[in-house]
Amino acid sequence: MVTPSTRRTFVKNLALLGAVGAAGSWLAGCDKEEPAKNAGAPGVIKQAGDKPVAFKYPDNPAFDLVYLADSLGYFEGTQARPQYIGKIAAPQIIPLVGTGEIDFGTRMVPLVISAIASGLDLKVIAAGGKTLQEAPHMKYFVRADSGITQPKDWEGKTVGFNSFGACAEFVSKKYLRAQGVNVDKINWVVVPDNQAEQTLVTGNVDIAIIHPPASGGAEHNPALRKLWSDYDLDGGLGGMAPYSGHGRFIRDNPQATSDFVAAIAKAGNWVNANPDDARKVIAERLGMKLDLVERYAYVEDLIITEPPIQYYIDILQNEGKLQPGKVQVKDVYTNQYNPFAKGAV
């Protein structure tokens, strides 16, 4: 049985190997310049004195920077400490952040916008994941013997996706409408990512939209065929998966919030520099076969930019889910707790 302490040792060893390799290449090339912060596992910022603040966080089977930062030791010497409170269903994460039942959580931008519009107290504080062609945020699958090949074929079909109100629904509907598809003729049903592959294989849905790491199994399943990824639909604009914080917690604990953002930003940079090592960590954490764990990519330093947020504000307004002018971009996010942002708002 793998214990938390052995897992943490395993991850730290991976980080150390990455850092040693990066340091070797740096020493060979320069004398006085600092190495690039993305070259390997960043060092831990040490702070002394004040008592650490425990933040409530879900312990979900996911590729998550909080788990990586914790295993890499990036919370050590800071005022932030994770307090895992068990598994939380994906659709509940943002509502629970908004009410303070949990202090931080990661889910897609439209859920945060809708929560803010409904009066909940939360804010995006770190950019989180991004979509690359080689590392998409989500993938679309059908059965290999399916005749579904183009958007119009979706009409009359059942689509399984992880929740309403997030990227899988809105990125898909925006694209399908642009292709002349009547999305009201599609049956949309919620299927958790870790059940989507089997649900599709057994014919309970015709199309499955699956996020990593669960999409790796579908990618390698000969009974299934990939249609496309979200990168193919919008070039990655809708793929930012940010971290949000409860308003009262971040106002009451600004240093702990800054330490939280710094720790996960370092973890994100480490993943970008060491994608295969990161896959090993997640495979070990989730008990998955390594070749089924897909690569993740993160916004550098987790600095938030406005276009991905405006993208979803526009979609929500066009879908009739958000009154025009109800929520502005500046209402949704802040970079003030990110020590790497250097004056960004």
TrEMBL record:
Listed Gene3D superfamilies: Periplasmic binding protein-like II
Domain SsuA/THI5-like: 60-278
Listed InterPro entries: SsuA/THI5, TAT_signal
Keyword Cell membrane in record: no
PANTHER family: ALIPHATIC SULFONATES-BINDING PROTEIN-RELATED (PTHR30024)
Pfam annotation, one family: NMT1
Keywords: Signal
Protein name (database record): ABC transporter substrate-binding protein
Signal sequence range: 1-28
